Amino acid sequence: MKKQKNDAEMLTKVKSNIFKDFAYDIKTNKWLMLMCVPAIVFFIVFAYIPMFGLVMAFQDFKITTGFLHSKFVGLQNFEFLFTDDFARVAFNTLYLNVLFIVATMICAIAIAILLSEIKNKYFKKVSQSIVILPHFISWTVVAMILEAFISTEYGVINRVITSMGGTAINFYQTAGIWPVFLTILRIWHGAGFDSIVYLAAITGIDQEIFEAARVDGATRVQCLRYLTLPLLKDTAVLLLIMAVGKIFNGDFGMIYALVGANTQLYEVTDVIDTYVYRSLTEISNVSMPAAVSFFQSCIGFVLVYITNAITRKVNPDSAVF
Amino acid sequence: MAKFEKGTTVKISTGDRIFAVICYVIVALFALLCLYPFLLVVAASFTDEKTLVAEGYRLIIHKFSTSAYRGLFATNQIFYSYGVTIFVTVVGTILSMLATSAMAYALSVKNLKSRGHLAFFMYFTMLFNGGLVPSYLLISKYLGMRDTIWVYIIPALVSAWNCLLLRNFFQAIPESLSESAKIDGANDIYILFKIILPISLPGMATISLFYALAYWNEWYKAMLYIDSEKLVSLQYLIMKILRNADFMASTAGANLSVVIPTQTTRMATVVATIGPIILLYPFLQKYFVGGLTVGGVKG
Questions:
Q1: pLDDT attached to residue B199
Q2: Domain segments of chain A as ranges
Q3: Which of B121, B168, B189 lies closest to A2 in CB terms?
């Protein structure tokens, strides 16, 4: 739980005097400070300066007039947040993210536990390598691979359906099934990789606990139920808090690559980020997307704090900070 | 298990045996599920187009053909894209690792009083960001990086998450190592390159792999910022082929002068794109699974 300590340290440090610390470091640790310069410049330019751009969320922003001369319109851009369109994409975002988080987490924990039970080293190594592999494939490629499975004429699934006497389904026009597809792809893509973290946690558990339990006559399943699972809880909760902060951020990279401009699937797959992207590119509305980003960041920030506060009350060991 | 069998009182019950067998079977099945799509794609890319159209996607190749690959490599576009992606991946990973390891090392030194501030400075960017529009305007309008190869690299130079991970690796190194070098008069840059980096190979390999993959798989930036064909990355090329086919399918027959990418060519593109990853993967994989286990995302 080194990270937790680091984060706690991080926060208490922030409360101490920033300027005094910097002055001290520039005097005594000038080489170390110098080494930080490239990364600091990077974060200022590409992370902090764009944050000032959020001012356009409160403006009727025109690229021709720029930030300084665009008219301030108060909260007008935020009106979109109360429309039916937004309710739909916000629901899809939440719904899909909850599906993804829960499904991937359960599968990742299951894979980690199963892998930890496997004693044959060679088998373990090979199977672990294979289940991690899909994580390294980009969603654009996954979209192509998906086609080999669900294409109406040539896809594996439809060939199986027709060979059993059914009629082929045009999955690209059947919106209802897409949450299932997306969740399965998400598991395929990420569960194996996520299991590394849990596997590390299991390996970190003192083996003597297990041996003691075994000597006392516990079966493997009992060890699993009463020892491994409770010990994985901290790691799971920690990752959950991290995930909750992004629950209002649709996975643009994934959804856009897989669904693209297929309007027939929008009903269930259109998330906040893809909707915003379209209004940006198709109707060149700049201010509304900025307002939505602002909203997403705020919600994420608040959610992380709330989940963390609750966690700290219930179980202090699991909290991030 | 062998440990228990040597004369301790633990008995391996039938239930335990069944459980072990179930574990093996499920893991094997999941591994096969992970592998199956890859095998299917490779098989399809080597199948004759007409056979594929008639029989659909199959694992077993009935009629072998390399025409998809010949078609794919007949145009220059894929070579340009390979060039762009390889350049971005190699140069980007090196630059990223330089900036990241320097910052991560500084943050791991207990002497540095402001390391807490600096870590929070990075951590904050993971929670809060300006969103797409301000970044877009900054990069294309104010920094003039639109349609240059640097737009793939510079805006993604340092990842806060990777930097904090690497700091955890460095923190696990005994401080006495760098302290003794310091007494000998070495400065921090020397210590990082000559002492810390050589003994942090698993951690460095892990983080390099993360960066390299992020660069290799980048398509979003190409979509936003790249206009000229010669600067299109491999992933965006795929995206274009995919979208193009969708478009052609929806307006079928309207314009036959444009060549519709055939099924097999598309699969060959997939193989060409993921080929290098799959080939390099076995060599890097041992580092990074070990690396992650030692450093631990959560410590």
A1: 82
A2: 13-72, 82-318
A3: B168
8 Å CB contact between B207 and B168? no
Tokens of B112: 């540095």
User: Which CATH architecture is the domain A82-318 placed in?
Assistant: Orthogonal Bundle (1.10)
Report pLDDT digits (tens) over A260-284.
Answer: 778 888 888 888 888 888 887 777 7
pLDDT tens by residue, B22-71: 999 999 999 999 999 999 888 888 888 777 777 778 888 878 888 888 87
Q: Is the ipTM reported for this complex over the cut 0.90? A: no
pLDDT digit string (tens) for B227-272?
888 899 988 888 887 776 655 555 544 444 444 557 788 888 888 8
Distance CA B133, CA B156 (A): 16
Domain boundary among B65, B86, B104: B65
**Co-location of B206 and B150 in the same domain:** yes
**Same domain membership, residue B251 and residue B170:** yes
Q: Are residues B24 and B48 in the same domain?
A: yes
Chain A hits for B297, CB-CB cut-off 8 Å, are: 3, 197, 200
Q: Would you state the structure tokens that stand for residue B291, as one six-digit string?
A: 């690396």
B30, burial (CB in 10 Å: exposed 0-12, middle 13-18, buried 19+):
buried
User: Which among B221, B131, B124, B224 has a CA at the least distance from the CA of A292?
Assistant: B131
Point out the residue among A16, A153, A214 whose CB comes nearest to the CB of B10.
Answer: A214
Number of domains in chain B: 2
The CA distance from A184 to A99, in Å, is: 10
Q: Is A199 in contact with B293 (CB distance < 8 Å)?
A: yes
Return mean pLDDT, chain A. Answer: 82
Whether B141 has its CB under 8 Å from any CB of chain A: the answer is yes
Range list of β-strands (E), chain A: 59-60, 71-72
What's the CA gap between B118 and B127, in Å, rounded?
Answer: 15
Which DSSP category does A171 fall into? G
Q: Are B233 and B222 in contact (CB under 8 A)?
A: yes
Torsion of Cα atoms, B94 then B97 then B101 then B103, to 10°? 110
Give the pLDDT score at A10: 55
Nearest CA of chain B to the CA of A264: how many Å? 12
A220 lies within 8 A of chain B by CB: yes
Contact by Cβ (8 Å): B35, A132: no
Q: How confident is the model at residue A82 (pLDDT cuts 50, 70, 90)?
A: confident
B299 lies within 8 A of chain A by CB: yes
Question: Which structural domain, as residue segments, surrounds residue B267?
Answer: 72-295
Distance from CA of B39 to the nearest CA of A (A): 10
pTM value is 0.80
**Residue B246 contacts A where some CB pair is shorter than 8 Å:** yes
Cα(B138)–Cα(A44) distance, integer angstroms: 12
Of B44, B65, B86, the residue that ends a domain is B65
